[in-house]
Amino acid sequence: MQKKLILDTHLLHITVDRLCQQLIEAHGDFSETAILGMQPRGIHLADMIHQKLEEDLKTKIDLGYLDTTFYRDDFRRRDTPVKANATKVPFIIENRNVVLIDDVLFTGRSVRAALDAMIAFGRPKKVELLVLVNRKYSRHLPIEPDFIGKDVTTLESQRVLVELEGGKHNKIWLINKEEK
Q: 131: closest CA among 91, 160, 101?
């Protein structure tokens, strides 16, 4: 298996700072906006962005975690049942702006499931998608992010590994799977 470093800790920090500045430009003080991190891996990025925004704006911002397990179109096609993650949305999203956050956008199917899952918490005024890595040319659905950390052109056989440990060793890798 071959690994290529896409973003190291320093560049990842700069990228998150830039994304936060773009969010502030778009949403001001976040009084009408909430953040939803997509389970399981989008919540780490959502936590990082949420913390940085609260520091910069010196205000509380609503943060929730959204599980899409039962809304996925492949839920009943699996051989073994999928274990659901916790959904934690302690606020109503009715008529509010929502920034949906995930680590990697690949086919768009997880985002579609998240849009369905969000409706249980109200009808948002507007939903925007923020992703750390946008895998270009891989969509199965017409879904595109509003805020992008890094665009990456990938092959179907490659995968993006996001290592967010919340500290000094955060890295993003492009992995080439070895052929058998």
A: 101
The residue extents of the domains of the chain are: 2-73+94-176
How far lies 158's CA from each of 103, 106, 152, in Å? 16, 11, 11
The CATH architecture to which 2-73+94-176 belongs is 3-Layer(aba) Sandwich (3.40)
Provide the β-strand partners of residue 7: 172
144 by Cβ neighbours in 10 Å (0-12 / 13-18 / 19+) ranks as middle
The reported pTM is: 0.90
Q: Is the pLDDT of residue 82 over 70?
A: no
Q: How far is CA 12 from CA 39, 58, 108, in A?
A: 20, 23, 23
